[in-house]
Amino acid sequence: MDDMLTESAHHVLERHCTPQFVRTVEAARERNAGRALWDQLDALGFLDALVPEEKGGSGMRLAAAAGALFEFGAHALPLPAAHTMIARDLLARAGVEAPRGPIAIALGNALRQGTAFVPYGLVADTLIVETADGASLVPLASAELRAHGDSLDATVTYPAQAACALPATVRGVGELGALATAATMAGGMQRVFDMTLGYVNERQQFGRSLGKFQAVQQQLSVMAEHVAATRVAAQLGCAGHHTSEQRIAAAIAKARASRAAPLVANGAHALVGAMGITAEYDLQLYTRRLHAQRLQYGSESFWDDVVGTHAIDHWSNVAAGVIGIYDALDEAAAQGT
Question: Taking the model in full, what pTM does it have?
Answer without folding.
Answer: 0.92
